[in-house]
Amino acid sequence: MKRIxxxxxxxxxxxxxxxxxxxxxxxxxxxxxxxxxxxRSGILQLVFDEKNEELLSLAQKLRAEWVxxxxxxxxxxxxxxxxxxxxxxxxxxxxxxxxxxxKAKPLPFAIDTEGYEISEEIxxxxxxxxxxxxxxxxxxxxxxxxxxxxxxxxxxxGFIEVETPLLTKSTPEGARDFLVPSxxxxxxxxxxxxxxxxxxxLLQVSGIEKYFQIARCFxxxxxxxxxxxxxxxxxxxxxxxxxxDILNLTEELFIKIIKNLFPEKKITKIPFPRISFKxxxxxxxxxxxxxxxxxxxxxxxxxxxxxxxFLFEKTAEKEISPSHHPFTAPKDEDIPLLDTDPTKARSWQxxxxxxxxxxxxxxxxxxxxxIQRKIFRILGHSKEETxxxxxxxxxxxxxxxxxxxxxxxGIDRFLAVVLGExxxxxxxxxxxxxxxxxxxxxTPAKVKEGQLKELHIKVLKKKEKRxx
Length: 468
Ligand code: ASP
Prior knowledge:
Blueprint: E1 16-28, E2 32-39, E3 42-49, H1 53-61, E4 67-76, E5 91-102, H2 120-125, H3 127-130, H4 134-156, E6 160-161, E7 179-181, E8 189-191, H5 197-205, E9 210-218, E10 230-239, H6 243-261, E11 266-267, E12 274-276, H7 277-284, E13 300-301, E14 303-307, E15 312-313, E16 321-322, H8 337-340, E17 349-354, E18 357-364, H9 369-378, H10 383-396, E19 404-409, H11 411-418, H12 449-454, H13 462-467
Parallel strand pairs: 6-9, 11-13, 12-14
Antiparallel strand pairs: 1-2, 1-4, 2-3, 4-5, 7-8, 9-10, 10-19, 14-17, 15-16, 17-18, 18-19
Helix pairs in contact: 9-10
This protein binds aspartic acid.
């Protein structure tokens, strides 16, 4: 017999069905037991009573979260038992057979609550159970819908989704790289991409013209509450465009996502305001302004773009570093400043902000190899270093490079904002803790001596390390 989802069972009134799922709740009155069976689609009430003593005694053994299979006829509930709050509230199933597929230990925490009240350590350790929670099931479903919507949106507009390598060379996005040792090339390393930045630019040299990718990015950052060492970006790059084309496309995408998937939300202002960095700093004292009319309204989304950034900024570690990344083009009229006072040069960077959070950034790129070399020089890279790290890009630009630019909105960050979640971990299936551990998989973890040997790696003992 074919299994029917519980949500579909009302269509089978009077008919025999098979349902499979978890024991959600048990209400036992001795001679009659009600079991709520849960599957991914919803809940169905099973009733066991004296009419079938054998099944009743088996049902008495059931405990919460056991996995069971039941077949029987779908019947109308007596009037006084109707539950208008659930899809299957007018019916119930009288099983004529019951099979226990798997027993379950008592769960380490409740899963019928929102879960915010439970310590995150234990939630993440048992993430597979935490994910049974309705809220997280909903988040994963919406995440999939948003990603599907994005794919359709770009496909309709002639974009091609191209996968780019994960074993690659460092692309500077302002964080440390995760390195992967090469077994075949002793002492050499790949880096996991901080973003597909250089590949998407190289794809423009290839003539792809319209690229996007739902891309995983890896950044080894110091513990920060709302960061993940790996996260997902909607990566976009286009040839023959100006900044305004990129902003318009991004704006259209987000308006359509909201209208179609989150119709209860109101966007503060359309078109999204374009605010210069200078104006943002003067008016809001931040380059991530929250432009909502009512910050307490959970259904208001205040999108804006910040433009006219400076090309460089001073950071805690460095006197001069890129405000965005070193591939961002300076404004034409500011190019002479690169030789005189580079810190004054403005750029074609653009950031997308929503409710005071940076959702994404991008820019028009440098395509003149000489200007690109100059930027690396200003950033303190020697000629040799520039060739070694970025030679591939500079070489590519000698073979006919179209003007191009793009943007990369963060999918996790956007979902957290639009779903009103306090943290991006709530919209990621298997996130890591703030200090980059998976408590469930217990990673990072030690590996066997033999594996290290193969990789030509020697781990310093803590003591040896301290001596240094
Ligand atoms: N690669 C950039 C980032 O990850 C986005 C872009 O410039 O398109 O922020």
